[in-house]
Design brief:
mainly alpha, 133 residues, flat
């Protein structure tokens, strides 16, 4: 994957493209002046809105919608890989809490300490795996 990405950037991009900032690259992608954009899944939630946002597109009028294709990073395998997929581009879970009062934040931390403990994780894991069966 790294070699193919290098070949793409070295052979099919204009001078300066590789060092371009993300804002400019995204604007050119939305204008369809760039054929590919390296980004994350979070782009999907704002793509349609960004086509109409003149500050994002850096144009004078809203842009026409176009089909958007996506691809994940390829899964890794081999003797040094402990799992078939080790990338942020696969389904993984994150936990977060909105910042509230000091007392609520302490409760959230207490819960996460229990949840991530061997006892809490074993209990939540067994519930999750049972519900998937």
């Amino acid at each position: 994957m790294d070699q193919n990405l290098h070949d793409l950037l070295a052979n099919y991009t204009p001078p300066g493209w590789y060092g371009m900032d993300q804002t400019t690259a995204y604007s050119l992608f939305l204008q369809q002046k760039a054929g590919i954009l390296l980004d994350g899944g979070w782009l999907l939630s704002s793509f349609a809105k960004d086509l109409k946002d003149l500050a994002v597109t850096k144009t004078k009028t809203a842009l026409q919608a176009f089909d958007l294709g996506t691809f994940n990073n390829p899964s890794m395998s081999g003797s040094y890989v402990q799992a078939p997929a080790r990338t942020i581009s696969v389904a993984i879970d994150f936990y977060g809490f909105p910042k509230k009062s000091f007392a609520q934040n302490k409760l959230n931390i207490d819960f996460m300490q229990w949840f991530s403990s061997p006892q809490g994780y074993a209990k939540s894991w067994s519930t999750t795996t049972q519900s998937r069966r």
